[in-house]
Predict the structure.
Amino acid sequence: MVITDIIVKDFKQFYGEQKIEIAYDKKKNVTVIYGANGRGKTSLFRAIMFGLYGEKRLAQDPEESEEELKLVNKVAIEQAVKNKKKEVEAYVQINFIHGQKQYSLKRYISGIKVSGEHVEQFGDVKLTITHQGNSNTLKDCEEIEEIINSILDKRVREYFLFDGEKMERLTRFSREQKREIENGIKNLLNINQLAVANKGLSLLLKHSEAQLKNKSTGTYQQEIIKLQTKESEKQKLESDLANIDKELRLAESELKGIDIKLEQYKGIKELLQKRTTLNSELEIAKTSRNDSLIEMININDDLGVLLIENELREVGEMLGKKIENQELPSPIRERLVNKILKDGVCICKTKIKDNPEALKNILEWKDRLIDEQVEQNLFSTYGKIGATREFIKHKADSVQRSLQDFANKSEQIENCEKALKKVSEQIGDQKIDDDIPKLEKSRTDVVIKIGKLEQQYSDANDGLHILKEEINIISENVKKLEREEGVRNDLAKRCNLVRESRDALTAIYEEFTKEIKEKIGTYATEIFHKLIDEEGSKTFKQIKVSEDYSLELYDWQDKPFLANISAGQRQVTSISFIAALAKIAGDEAETLEIPLFMDTPFGRLSGEHRDRLLENIPNLTKQWILLATDTEFTKEECQMLKSTGRWGKIFTLEGDQPGFTNIKEKNVITFIPQRTTAIERRA
Amino acid sequence: MSEINFLIKEKLKKYPVGVQKLVLKAIELAELNHETAISDQLEGVVRDISKNNS
């Protein structure tokens, strides 16, 4: 199958009729569809699914979105309402070549607005097949479906049209991963038919053994009953296993749902936690500021004393100076001056009565005399002034500290309030329908449930193995009895034939799936070593599909390594597995006969892995259609792809408003991605 | 995909002819039928094979 072009009209973001020609030249087989997120890359992917199979949903669509998923362009519908037209007829046309024939498949879907609601209805489908100049147009849905399925089976479409998410899923350690691998292998190789045939034979065996039991006697009958009982037990156990598996799927789906919600709330959760922390910080700061305030109020009682600090200082200094100058205490006592005046003789024997100069001096001395009591009071005051000033200094420091503390707390409160405002703005109107702790509790419960179910599954599986061994032993015994007792009637013979056939088919089925797994492992390893970087190649030896359908990567010591590999190495492993599946589906041809679509596959890949993919994938498939965003298809990838010489076409998805995307073809040689490389950005 | 039937036929060669016939018929019926219909339709096939082998 080689797709030549895809035409869309009023489909999703693509208003009016628009066309993409896919490169299908043997030498130039790569088409890049380049556009920002939301521009319609996945819509093109959806257009192919819808065109080929009439399906609205993609594997990655959330289950609940089916009702809301609309394919007809909304702008076209609005215009139809404005122009009083009844409905919009959208379509997808896929033109392709398969074998020697040309195919043109056109599928319609109409959209209409009824009472404000956008309603859609599937329309006709038309397939025109042209062979050697003769054309034949088919309109029968079932006939068309059969033809398309024979070219690219609907059940395996996901392995040719896949996205980064699918690649990530394939290498996760989960039952979901195992189921994906199992389904991929079984669907691709159509071996489910063998399983259905086996169930038919098992049912026939049950009926035959019931008939045989009714017509048998003695030990033989007892053995037949035993065999039947064990077969019934086995069937019951198989049914139990299927039920546990179903329950597990439900639980895993529930877990996935919770995880999606928790992931959505992750950002908000962090913001909410931040808000709670800020609120409590704010409370603490406010309480602390109040404490500072109370402390200041208490200080306030003694604050009056601060007002006389200057005066006290001056008086203190003055008294201090007097003491320093030895003016205090007075060097001459009052009693001595009075005695001199009374006696008229100084202590130096000078007669002051006859000496006016000496008298004047003594009188001056008298004027300068301070009362002894006053002098004592001055000393006491001087001491108290010192103590009071110390007290004032201490109070002033306390006030200073309290004021600083108050200012700090106020600043902290202001900062908290600013941060709170910012966080609240970030939280904005985002609605939180579920209580996060409740969701987390539900998650824990579901994880516990899954653990229990897995244990039950493992126990039931072990029981099934034991039963199978017991059935084998009883079967051998029945055969032995038949030989010994000559029980060789028609019924026994028929019963044996059915049992042998059922066992043969079971053995073939197991052998066949084992061989296929080995083959897929071999091819996947081969491709893996082409795609993985040098370091990976040195570390990893091979990919294996294990007995329980896990995808495993082994190192050179033959030890499983998948749990420790990087996201990029995971993607390379998945791509290798998918390419191996496709190779087997294409009868092991060197190149895939089916186009390989990859939607945003480079997200987790390193530069070297990207280069290797760009270099090698064009050789693995007839057509490679790469749907890429500007962040994953930068100048570096562009240059690398140009250097391979395999790049045939480039289309950009452009538009500046919702509902309008224009598909524009660009020149591969002159095309330069808008987004610069990381190095350029740094420069 | 086309080699699957061939591979199954190859693997069946080691089994008795009756078993080969019955298994291939079951696989053929499985393409369009579910297990009950397969079981019903195989009853006649089993009878024929047993009769021819006796």
About this structure: Chain B has one domain: 3-53.
